Amino acid sequence: METAPRPASISPLDVVRILRSAGSSLLTQAGLHGQLARVEWAAEKNRLTGLLIAALIVGIGVLCTLLMAGALVLAFSWDTPYRIPAALGLVLFYAACAGFAWLRFKNLSARGREAFAGTREEIAADLALIRSRL
Fold this sequence. Notes:
Elements lengths: L11 H66 L5 H28 L6 H17 L1
Helix pairs in contact: 1-2, 1-3
């Protein structure tokens, strides 16, 4: 019976030698990953802060505009037979605006997956390199 040749196993001393020779490189690379993560976090934090401020300003402006426009439409149609259809039209319009805002929110929140893409790619490449060397 032929037995398949056993792959060469790595002894603990080999691991210690590899880590000792690559230790400073690994620490340097880890430091670079940390710096990249800090830069990407600052960019993501700025994006989220700007998104929040813009959303608040737009939300307040749209809310005030819609309330005043709705009041104006109801005031003009109050003494007419179109009072109920005008009120229903306003409700449908407000619902459509809310639906649009929800879709926009989902779109912006889905872009959050792009955060730290560079860091994840660099770590994956480094892990692949380390695995290929061991």
